[in-house]
Amino acid sequence: MRHFAEMNKTLTPSKDSIHRQWYLVDAENQTLGRLASEVASMLRGKNKPCYTPHLDTGDFVVIVNAEKIRVSGNKSDQKLYRRHSGRPGGMKTETFNALQDRIPERIVETAIKGMLPHNSLGRQMFRKLKVYRGSNHPHAAQQPKEFILSTASN
Fold first, then answer.
1. pTM (2 decimals)?
2. Comparing C-alpha atoms, which of 106, 94, 41 is closest to residue 69?
3. What would the pLDDT profile of 33-73 be if each residue is shown by its tens digit?
4. What is the CATH number of the domain that holds 103?
5. pLDDT > 90 fraction of the chain, expressed in percent and rounded
6. Are 36 and 111 in contact (CB under 8 A)?
7. In 18-127, which ranges are E strands?
8. Domain containing 29: what range?
9. Spatial distance between the Cα atoms of 78 and 145, rounded to a whole number of angstroms
10. Contact 24/147 with Cβ under 8 angstroms?
11. β-strands 80-84, 91-95: how paired?
């Protein structure tokens, strides 16, 4: 029988030992769900050896060209985005195409936010996501590394 002193101990990373990297992801011609799952994993820190489920060990992610994201099948005409004002009869419904013309950043943000934990930790992780229409972004000073998604559609 083993004693407790001989058992392996799980190490919890301290706040000082968590190093956050900045990544730049180009959403041009990427499939929405595949891009969102990869980015959500990076925001959670699952790509690092120090990943801990109850801590925010993730990196910062900058997504550019959000207006050039793609969806498969008939989703561009059938996928609906809903929001509610909180007032009676305040439900607003919009299709993927209409929202892509108006606010393309919201499509990517909504997909990624749904893949993060639905609690205060998930909200903290979501704050490290920056999404922009077009290829310009104000985070050049952070020197983000280009991240090529392994699931690029042709």
1. 0.89
2. 106
3. 999 999 999 999 999 999 999 999 999 999 999 999 999 99
4. 3.90.1180.10
5. 84
6. yes
7. 22-26, 60-64, 80-84, 91-95
8. 21-146
9. 35
10. yes
11. antiparallel
What are φ and ψ of residue 151, in 5° steps? Answer: -110, 50
Provide the mean pLDDT of the chain.
92
How far, in Å, CA of 77 to CA of 98, rounded? 9
Whether residue 12 is contained in a domain is answered as no
What's at 108, amino acid-wise? V
Q: Is residue 106 part of a domain?
A: yes
Token digits for 107?
Answer: 């499509």
Strand partners, 146: 24
Helix segments in 22-126, DSSP class H? 32-44, 75-78, 96-102, 104-113, 120-126
Check if the beta carbon of residue 61 is closer than 8 Å to that of residue 43.
yes
69 assigned to some structural domain: yes
Residue with tokens 């769900």: 33
Single out the residue of 106, 148, 145 nearest to residue 126, CA to CA: 106
